[in-house]
Predict the structure.
Amino acid sequence: MLDVIEVLGAAAILSAFAALQLKRLAPDSPLYLVLNLAGSGVLTVAALQRGSWGFVMLEAAWAVASLAGLVTSLRRPRPAAAGQTDTQGR
């Protein structure tokens, strides 16, 4: 079962990477960052269970970086969609 979970975690990271390379996602898009966070989080837990300390360090760092990027991305103000006005009626 742990192997299946590891494969799903790796698939999340690899699908985000592929989407980035194919210009389907931006590196600061929430979906890209969530896929990286979820995948690296799963792989961190799996590496902990196996005692693979180098991979724990790698995946935990990846998860922290993804979480920091996600928080930054979600805090950034989004531009208004075309045709929308602000609360002042502009």
Notes: The mean pLDDT is 90. The two ends are 56 Å apart (CA to CA). The chain is about 70% helix and 0% strand.
